[in-house]
Amino acid sequence: MNTYSSRPVVLCLSGHDPSGGAGLQADIEALIAQGCHAAPAVTALTVQDTVNVSDFRVLDREWVLAQANAVLADSTVAAVKLGMLGSIEMVDTVAELLAAHPHLPLVCDPVLRAGGGGRLGKDEVGYALRERLLPLATIATPNLPEARILAELPEGTADECAEKLLPFCRHLLITGGHGDEDEIHNRLYTQDGQHFTWTCQRLPGSYHGSGCTLASALAGRLALGEQLESAVRTALDYTWRTLRDAEQLGKGQYVPRRLPLDFCS
């Protein structure tokens, strides 16, 4: 028996999805696949399936702080991943928590919409997140619809949204796939003016939990010490493979296969 684990611990502050496609289960599986250990702190409970979200409830501030502080006091956390927060109050709570740990790499996935389009917080939550949490993040990973909400540009391009958001964050990864283009463009922007684009083949169908998968994989790569540009590339490649091998477990979107079939064999 190994007394001391060599796996980096990643604290995940995300919502719970009972379908298992997104949220904390996506975080856990994606981090295991990177060779990391996920420490999940629940921020919200949702009523959703692979079709859409119908309701959610944000947990009390004290409960979220207690969960996260228990992990931080007990383990050497190597990175933090943020998912669904759901309310302005929860944004403020998480900002307060993270301000006490500024040394930790932070991946901020601004979860504002479910894969089926349902809202997971009012647009004002996005604006609060932009003002309070993006400045604390190592990198933010919105998809283009989320970037438009954050930037207050309803029809903005990725470049236009990045111009509006980069004053708030050091690195910004805006993912594609929400249009009808044959190739998906994922764009990394940095405050020093660098711009990287990765393209991948569009896969048929739509997917539940792809953003959670990407952000968690990226947090895992950073926890392992990988440099940011390389970590983004690795996380994008991994996420594409999970979508290529995705399964239709319900009546709606496909669920990424984040662990290999022989994982437990």
Mean pLDDT: 92
* Helical proportion, percent range: 25-40%
**CATH homologous superfamily identity:** Ribokinase
Determine Rg (CA atoms, Å).
Answer: 17 Å
Q: Span from first to last CA?
A: 19 Å
Per CATH, the architecture is 3-Layer(aba) Sandwich
| Morphology | globular
* Main pleated sheet: 6 strands, mixed
What structural category characterises the helix and strand content? Answer: alpha/beta
Task: Compute the number of helices.
Answer: 8
Can you offer a commentary on this structure?
There is one protein chain. The protein is α/β, with parallel strands linked by helices. The chain has one domain (7-243): UDP-N-acetylmuramoyl-L-alanine:D-glutamate ligase. The protein has helices spanning 23-34, 61-74, 88-99, 123-132, 144-151, 158-165, 210-223, 228-244, and strands spanning 9-16, 37-48, 53-58, 77-82, 106-108, 139-140, 171-174, 183-190, 195-201. The protein has a six-stranded mixed beta sheet with strand order 3-2-1-4-5-6. The longest helix has 17 residues, at 228-244. The two termini are 19 Å apart. The model has no long low-confidence stretch (mean pLDDT 92). GO terms for molecular function: hydroxymethylpyrimidine kinase activity; phosphomethylpyrimidine kinase activity. Its EC number is 2.7.1.49. One of its GO terms (biological process) is thiamine biosynthetic process.
